[in-house]
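Self-study notes.
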Amino acid sequence: MEAHPRPTAPAGSPPLGALPVEPLLTSEFDADPGAVYERLRRRYGPVAPVGLMGVPVWLVLGYTEVTEVLRNESLWRRDVRYWRTRAEGGLPPDWPLLAGYEVRQMMFMDDEEHLAARRTHHSALSPFQDARSPEGWELRASVARYADELVAMLAAESGSVGFADLGAQYTRPLLLMVTTRLFGCPVELGDELVMDLWRMLDGGPGAAPATGRALAAFTRLAAHRRARPGDDLTSYMLLADPDLSDEQLGRELFMNAVYLNDITGNMVLNTLLEVLRGNATVRRSLSAGQLGETVNRAALANPPVANMCFRFAARDVRLGDVWVRAGDVVSPSAAAAHQDLLALGSSHMVGSTVSTRAHLGWGAGPHQCPSAARELGSLIVTTAVGRIFDHFTQAELTLPPDQLPWRSGPVVRGLRILPVRYEMHAPHRPEAVPPPAGTAAHAADGQTKGLLAALRRLMFGGRDKGVSGS
């Protein structure tokens, strides 16, 4: 018998299912989610009941409460089988978000099963993380080469001065090319895969069949690489865990594709947007050549995953001002929690770096992105952002920031398009692949060209003594 019995919700505390909830996904949320988060917080405190496509959910808004949920795996479970409403048959049979949660892969596992899957991922990704390994060097070279090729295509199609959608013409194809290379796909992946991932994440029409199509494609890839192994992530995952079935490996590749194409792609676009819309702290980091910090500051202002994957309470627990009952679903909101960090960062009592290090763009706690995946994602984002601003001498949005079209969904905050007018060096020629990261040549390469140089002049009046070649 336990010396201290676990607490249970007091009889007078209302259960989630009995509360009146307002729908989260409204036109107001599409236009200004920050205002919705703030209004909910004023009304309910750091945890608010909302309706998500007709299903009541606890939305966690405060940074303290969000990190509490993310870091305590024993209390806040990821396995969808803990969800009481689902277990009791209370979900609408065609609830569009359920299709993604029914895919049993590393993100939705707990305890030792989850740790074993993380070890497999870390082992398989490690060769690509190491810049000194052949796989790591080749992947880094490929990312830079693909970026340069896509910029060269812009120049060939529209000239050195023109208009472009940096989503459809740069970021999406870049991430598809990287995925094809990293996964060892026998044929190049198409844009329809990205659309299916969007349908699954956003709970759009056809989410279930879209999830099925993507899973089938990656299961076929798993079978192909089992028969013909190579120097790619798919083959290395089989090497790390030979007992993986084609179906299970397909599910893990599916999860990696979601993060690589959608989450990493959103981080690229959101970083580009924060620079182009004139976010002073983001532009200051970029102008100083600190691409990693540029991405951190953009992720703080506009995280690629606005509301993170569901957690399910293992027992009754008080969170913020409410009692969450065993089996209740909570959605931790990184976008809402970051408002606390932005307020902290603006305080005269702390440095601005405190908040940027604590952003939730890669998650937190036991289920945050594995370190090898974070390193790889950061490499892709910084390379994609850096190469654009190396080549462009000027770039400006062709729509006001408040008129840009965003995807309407409960998880990501992702742009549909990022339309710009650009000017680039003419005549344009793709540049040589940079030397390995960490070398002195890499530190100097590309830091004073294109729009980076213009931003440095704007921010510092040309006083960038610490960078060679200026």
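Second protein, same conventions, sequence then structure:
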Amino acid sequence: MRTRCPLLLGLVLALLLASCAGCSGGGDSGTGPITLRFQSLAWQEESVEVNKELVKEWNAAHPDVKVEYVQGSWDSVHDQLLTSFEGGEAPDIIHDASDDLADFAYGGFLADLTGLLPDRLTSDIPRRSWETVTFGDGVYGVPFLQEPRVLIANATWLKGSGVRVPTPEQPWTWAEFRRITEQLSGDGRYGVAWPLKDPVSATLNLSLSAGGKLFHRGPDGKVTVRFEAGDEVVPRTVHDQVVEDRSAPGSLLGSGGSDTLPGFFAGKYAMVPLGFSYRQQIVQQAPKGFDWQVLPAPAGAEGLTQGVSPQTLSIAEDSPHKEEAAAFLDFLLSPPHMVRLALGDWMLPTGTTALADPALRTTEHDWATGTALAAHLRPAPAQSVRGYPEWKDKVATPAFQEYYSGAIGLGELRDRLEDDGNLVLARYQR
């Protein structure tokens, strides 16, 4: 027995080791191809199709590095990612938006892409776009798609009214916009409908045109909220259109953009401020013969400047295959592929080469109006603010909603954004 037990034990251990060699799958066994999990948030049919096509093309050309497409959702991405990071189950390649990255970057969940990305990619995307994914000394994502906020207008209504129709070269001012929406209103119809289910990002991003900043970073690196003159222009315009002029229906303030389209098509509102990508829904849903057009958002002291939070692609810090993941990003975001992704999502690419593609500069569906606005896009004010998601949900969203409905005044809005907001942000900056 003393002679046979060690032999038996050795045989059992050998069998166990052989069995475990196949437990972790082909990506990590050392005997098969590497497998990268790519979680995409594409949701429009065209966009999902393009993403899956590009994954298929990569896999056909790279038998040793396979990419697995995983479908995610914008509705739950923050909480889902946080759970997967903490559980050690995050996908290798992560699709998100730049204003959701700060806490993940500072928390050590995302890989610093400095030195991982090829010069071709880093030089093709403007510095202002890279600023949206730079936190401290690191770069934690690749900004690849963006969209300006625009006015989608009933072209027949505008032409019949005789008002001046704005262009990117000669936009309306915020004061002119208010006057025109009042002029267009009456007989149960409204000059504009504001879908502000998420009022914070829309307000802050448009406020850059008026010089609004809201978040101010001091010499010590800490951020404080200051609601100043430039920050008041856009909220006051919306408030006055709803409460004073009755040129915007208050009933739609809590609605999403898609909720306004039936009324827009029915001729209830002359204009709806929406993201540029909503054109896809309008093309699909508009009644036959409905004539619409894209107008630039109003301009303030800073012209057509507005904030954006580009869609991003990041690599998980825990991924054992960062170089392979970076190579896939380079493939996915080559100029021709970036054009395909932009067309599929009805958005604008950040890459300058892709943005110059004729397919994105056509007058059909007003692509040319959007590309004319690309140079005016800047990082959203909240990009690098730690604690922004909590500030937005607990402080800013209810404060703006109450102000826009007329429940509170401008002074109380300022006090809540500053006093309550700074208490929230302070917890993240100790």
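Instructor comment on the second fold: The radius of gyration is 25 Å.
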